[in-house]
Amino acid sequence: MIQIEHLTKIYQTPSQQVLALDDVTLSVKKGEIFGIIGLSGAGKSTLIRCINMLEKPTKGSIYVDGREITSLARRELRSERQKIGMIFQHFNLLSSRTVFENVLFPLEIAKVPLDQARARVNELLELVGLADKANVYPGQLSGGQKQRVGIARALANNPKVLLSDEATSALDPQTTSSILKLLKDINRQLNLTILLITHDMNVIKQVCDRVAVIDNSRIVEIGDVLSIFSNPGTAISKSFINAVVKTDIPEDLIHASQVPQGHTTRLIRVSFIGSSAGEPIISSMIKQYRIDVNILYGNIDRVKDTPFGNLVLELIGETSLLDQSMTYLRERGLEIEVL
Amino acid sequence: MFEATALVSLPCLMGATTVEYSWLIEKVSLATWETIYMVVISTALAYVMGLPLGVILVTTEKGHILENIPLNRILGVVINIFRSIPFIVFLILIIPLTRLIVGGFIGTVASMVPLTLAAVPFVARLVETSLKEIEWGLIEAALSMGANAWQIITKVLLPEASPSLILGVAITAINLVGYSAMAGIVGGGGLGTLAYYYGFQRYQTLVLLVTVIILVFMVQGVQVLGDSLAARAVKRRR
């Protein structure tokens, strides 16, 4: 649905050139929720703004639903933008218009006949759960309600794609969850492709199917959220994941246990996804290899809708048995990382 | 009318027995209406020209929706030149133009030409300041919906800036009250002419005083009206 090819953006300031995006290539499939995560200044905001040409790329091309956005004339670009909804961190609602009139705004721009437009606004307010706030001004709404208006507004012209620019970054955790749930529902109900950027791995964890990690203007990792969670390939991905899945074990715990003569210990992190979370693999490993296992940490979480667990184990036994045990775990499809 | 009530008690204070009250009331009310008329029309005309100029000043800036840097620079310089000419000089400088437009340069209608033209660059700058207060995010949101420049100006910039624009109108009108008095000295009509001819040249202190009081009330009234209209526009949104 969205195809980005060799996108480069350079900002020219009087004194120097700033490279904001460096040869970014990625594609977003129809109907998926795709997340881009990065620290502030990594270039993610520039990237999402290039997709509807709020920023003009220096090099490269972008296709949305097969049309090359980067080569459109002004008028064509405007009509194409009506098919790309966008929501913002600070909502950007018009304070001089009521909730109803704010949602009507994109329909006015698209010159939709008024009676048709009004019906559409009511439908959208119903969808985002704000039908009772139609005649209220944005100044009277909470952050979460404002973002719901933003979402209704972005959906007004039945877009093919929804761009979300840090849409939950100004909201508290609970409100964030409810907005993310709304986005997930919309994605499912309307089969709408959503591209979101965030600096919060929780957002990725809760709604995204795939994720791209952007660091220093480059995409450093891209893949299924689950596989990146269980097997992050870069230090930056690891640090994002650590922020939501705690696997750092306190130092004193690691060296606490007494090791019998001739035995060694090994600290491993086991991650398991989906159905394997239900099988007694650890228990059968202990029985089969007769090693000792010390469970230091464990949790089960959800990545979008799939259970995702982490265990930190201390294996104690003869070196050869430890090696065999780890092979055993790997053969059963678990991700093992020696800490 | 407040000017009438003000006059009743004044003569005893001033001891101005030479002034016939009925004459004074008649002269003062006529002059007051002339001033109001001049100020209202000039303010309106100044906005007809100044508002678009202010919009152009903002939207042709670098990175804005109608970026045109040469036009922006030239317009800025021209506005600054006009703003740096003292009004009393400007009044005389444009007499030929005034003649061309209204056929003379004495009287209420004639003085509306310099009043309007002097206010235009001022209005343009006020409008510019008001529009610049609007967050770029709102413009960006409208752009992301596919709005064109005209839609952004009429549906985002002007409505969002309306409280600030209303205050600008009040400031302009108040300035024009002052300017109209100045124009009165060269025969522009209104309270300025009255104050100058009778109050100053004929030593009728009472006339001078009454004029000043009326001007004070007028300025006060415009400001209060502007404030309350602006406050209402803001309040509606909270």
User: If classified by CATH, what would the architecture of the largest domain in chain A be?
Assistant: 3-Layer(aba) Sandwich
Largest sheet of chain A: 6 strands, mixed
Count structural domains of chain B: 1
Query: How many DSSP-defined strands of chain B?
Result: 0
| Count of structural domains of chain A | 2
Average pLDDT of chain A, to the nearest integer?
89
CATH level 1 name of chain B: Mainly Alpha
Determine Rg of chain B (CA atoms, Å).
Answer: 21 Å
User: Biggest sheet of chain B: strands, sense, closure?
Assistant: none
- CATH fold name of the largest domain in chain A, please? Rossmann fold
| Topology order of chain A in helix (H) and strand (E) letters | EEEHEEHEHHHEHEHEEHHHEHEEHE
| CATH homologous superfamily descriptor of chain B | MetI-like
**Helical segment tally of chain B?**
11
Strand content of chain B is: under 5%
| Structural class assignment of chain A | alpha/beta
Q: What's the order of the H and E elements of chain B?
A: HHHHHHHHHHH
Ordered list of secondary-structure elements with their pairings:
The complex is a heterodimer of chains A (339) and B (238).
Chain A lengths: L1 E11 L4 E12 L4 E5 L6 H8 L7 E6 L2 E2 L5 H8 L2 E5 L10 H11 L4 H14 L15 H13 L5 E5 L7 H18 L2 E6 L2 H7 L2 E6 L2 E7 H6 L4 H10 L6 H4 L9 E10 L7 H9 L2 E12 L2 E12 L1 H13 L3 E4 L1
Chain B lengths: L1 H13 L6 H39 L9 H16 L2 H7 L1 H8 L5 H25 L3 H9 L4 H12 L1 H24 L4 H11 L4 H31 L3
Helix pairs in contact in B: 1-2, 1-11, 2-6, 2-9, 2-10, 3-6, 5-6, 6-9, 9-10, 9-11, 10-11
Can you walk me through this structure?
Chain A is α/β, with parallel strands linked by helices and 339 residues long. Chain A is built from 12 helices and 14 strands. In chain A, strand 1 (2-12) and strand 2 (17-28) form a beta hairpin. Chain A is elongated, with a radius of gyration of 24 Å. Helix content of chain B is 82%, strand content 0%. By secondary structure, chain B is an all-alpha fold. Chain B has 11 helices and no strands. In chain B, helix 1 (2-14) crosses helix 2. Classes of the chains: A alpha/beta (339), B mainly alpha (238).
